[in-house]
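Our preliminary data section would be incomplete without showing what the modeling component actually yields. Below, a chain of 102 amino acids is followed by its predicted structure, encoded as tokens that our downstream tools consume directly.
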Amino acid sequence: MVSSKRPTSLSITETRTDSLRPATYNPRKWNETQLATLMESLSRFGFVDPVIVNGTSSRKNIVIGGHMRLEAAKRLGMPEGIPNAPTSVRMGNGESRTGVDG
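Predicted structure:
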């Protein structure tokens, strides 16, 4: 049986776009039309969902989720802090790690 122990809270921080690094293993691809639509949304409404990043010291600020949001923010020239949530992932063998980088 797998434990479904989850954190009770999520910490949202802000980090400069130039400090966040896309993960090399990100499988999601997007086209310029999708990116333009997201850029328009970010311009109008700001960030609704934070970018999910790795929180361990050896992989700090590697993006786990939100690669397209990060790219849109960079193209919009948003160098200031963008909302992100450092998170930890529990591996199947009981090892606790924060994200994985290819």
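Confidence is low (pLDDT under 50) at residues 90-102. The two ends are 28 Å apart (CA to CA). Preliminary results of this kind motivate Aim 1 of the renewal.
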